Amino acid sequence: MIKRKLKCHCKKVVIEVTTPEKISNLIKCNCSLCSKKNALMAITQPENFKIVEGENFLKKYQFHSNTANHFFCSICGIYTHHNPRRDPKLFGFNIMCLENREGLNEKEIKMIDGKNHPLDKK
Asked: Given a cut of 80, is residue 103 above it in pLDDT?
């Protein structure tokens, strides 16, 4: 496991994420929000995720079921991370914000069907 820095574009928000050397749990989601932001994400446990600087610059966005928390920098507008609604204790983070993206296996991106999320079925 290695510690990586994740930063928004203006570098006001700095997050430390502990990941395996080879990040293989890359995901994309087709929900209305994720498809528009086109982020490449990975999910991690709370103990592997720490906001180091700029928490005061983060803004939260929620929609639909208001279960997931999506965070972005209020200065540059970059999506940095979220808590997925399937398990809000976890952290999804924007791979493209990592300073060091070595070890990414971009050939194994899992597509998540957020358009037809199980929590939407009644």
From this structure: no
